[in-house]
Amino acid sequence: MSEDFEVILHTKSYLPDPEYKAQSHLGDYHNAYQEFLKNPEGFWDRMAREIEWMKPWDKVLEWDYPYARWFSGGTLNITTSCLDRHIKAGRRNKLALIWRGEDGEERVYTYRQLHRDVMRFANALKRLGVKKGDRICFYMPLVPEHIIALLACARIGAVHSIVYAGFGAEALHARIRDAEAKVVITADVGKRRGKVISLRSIVDDAIRNTPSVEKVIVLCREKCSVELYSEMEEDFYSLLDGVETDCPPEEMDAEDPLFILYTSGTTGMPKGIVHTCGGYATGVHYTARYIFDLKENDVLWCTADTGWITGHSYIVYGPLSAGATVVITETTPDWPDPGIWWSIIEELGVTIFYTAPTAIRMFMRVGEEWPNKYNLDSLRIIGSVGEPLNPEAFEWYYRVIGKNRIPVLDTWWQTETGMHMITTPLGEPMKPGFAGLPVPGIEVDVVDKDGNSMPPGQGGLLVIKKPWPSMMRTVYRNDERYRKYWNQIRNYYTAGDLAVKDNDGYIMILGRSDDIIIVAGHNLGTAEVESALVEHEAVAEAAVIGVPDEIKGQAVKAFVILVKGYEPSQKLVSELTYHVRMSIGPIAMPASIEFVDSLPRTRSGKIMRRILKAKEMNMDLGDTSTLEE
Ligand code: WT7
């Protein structure tokens, strides 16, 4: 298969100003990495001491393959690291959050205000009967109340499960059911490109036949009367009437769950990735401070949504733990025009900007005159995440936004890893096309399917060789799926990506090795899209593949066999596209649908998407010995 191939490596590299390294928290990367290797547990012990604990741990790591317990015996509440300690440390009047709406509306929260509002909402949740361990599902736009309610869950030990508010009712339903959420928190509407999108009606659809749900909390942004719908609903702000302001943090065991986050799997049902309190808090604080190098005056803008792990780790928990100022916004990159994001950077003085290759490629296409209209001098680090940052996009980002002097941090990681795993640490040479080197604390390699290390230039599978604190602990209610991550290649964690190293150990990510399609940085399982298609009465069978897309990286292409009696038509194409949009969401919409009479299969009946893909792209079909016909 594709594990064994040669890759021609670019050799270009850019050297950042030595001041970056000299001033950084990490210092010299190679020294830091050697320190870690000498004493891995000592390294993580030091990092864990940088957050707040109620009771110290007895042991840094207990590794009972494939189960890890980090900082066992220790207790903490992540919100004290994100809020309380900054109040004590003189940051009480520092801005924690700056929110910018589409129409230019702005709201700001100091650390003191955020702390107070989190505690009040935490008390409101308690009054509703929410207890430690209960699952709370979020389906919210990116507004301050979302962050407040999220931290309030963490404050009382409730487990949050955020569902991206661009997902459709069916996707939301499946996630509510799997997590057995007791409460759903939503808003009446989200705002996007000048349009008002009803979220509450989607929630309404999604909570049919979800017996676990007792309450739906609705944040009313427009004029809405919550009672109109049902007795289950509560108004976000009315819940705060008469609650106390003080809410002591729940004492959590280091290994208690902090949240569940669903990510697409290669089978139909998305996987509920479970992260725990102590290790996750340590990992995101460590990377916020030592990889993003967050300092007292930094203003961080991570353009992700909270519905993805990027938002959890680098909008909420990491930067707040490091005491930075965080920018959040509901804006899209090209509305009302493609200058909007650059104008926000100029106006708010953003110092660290973190976005996705798909956005960078969109900006490339519309032209550099847009960013050039604005003064971007406040920037000191620009980052990328979600899919490979191709060399052309790197060059553009570095030249146009980075002015040939600001380090580009391409960061490779996953929902499952919780924190940055591979990047080009500040001060190290940057190589276009390469994510970079493992962060100190992490041992990665590129191997063949037996786990043997591949020589430089030879492609292989990306693995992580040892446990790390912010690793996922299980897949919610599917521990077998969790074990699969660790039992495919020796005792290593298999990431599911193809990669290649160069002579300096730099890692280039080549894409997924499994049936995951990454559209504009969003993970989609082929099975998920296929089952949505098959739900339609006209569809007998469907297979989907990812095809290259200039802006989105990949786009969905669907092959469909129709039920007898249905004829291919443009109308049916639109209908099927709409159907996928409504059940999973706009990101899953096929860019093209082809009607076929049969699909390539193995003798055991499995659809061979690899063959469809090779045909589509006019490539060699590869090994077809298992093909049926
Ligand atoms: C998959 C994980 C981590 C937050 C966003 C995605 C791909 C992620 C990079 C990168 C190349 C990347 C991988 C990975 N990916 N970052 N810098 N270069 N590929 O989280 O939804 O869990 O997806 O995204 O294929 O396995 P996720």
Automatic annotation (TrEMBL):
The residues covered by the AMP-binding enzyme C-terminal domain are 528-606
Per its UniProt record, what PANTHER family does this chain match? Answer: ACETYL-COENZYME A SYNTHETASE, ACETYL-COENZYME A SYNTHETASE 1
Q: Name one GO molecular function term.
A: ATP binding
Keywords from the UniProt entry? ATP-binding, Ligase, Nucleotide-binding
Q: Which residues form the AMP-dependent synthetase/ligase domain?
A: 89-473
**Protein origin, superkingdom:** Archaea
What's the Enzyme Commission number for this chain?
6.2.1.1
Q: Which InterPro entries match?
A: Ac_CoA_lig, ACAS_N, AMP-bd_C, AMP-bd_C_sf, AMP-binding_CS, AMP-dep_synth/lig_dom, ANL_N_sf
Recorded family membership: Belongs to the ATP-dependent AMP-binding enzyme family.
Kindly state a single biological-process term from the GO annotations of this entry. acetyl-CoA biosynthetic process from acetate
GO CC annotations, alphabetized? cytosol
- Species lineage: Archaea, Methanobacteriati, Methanobacteriota, Stenosarchaea group, Methanomicrobia
Q: Name one Pfam family in it.
A: AMP-binding
Q: What is the protein's given name?
A: Acetate--CoA ligase
Q: Which organism is it from?
A: Methanospirillum hungatei JF-1 (strain ATCC 27890 / DSM 864 / NBRC 100397 / JF-1)
Domain Acetyl-coenzyme A synthetase N-terminal as annotated: residue spans: 29-82
Q: What class of enzyme is it?
A: ligase
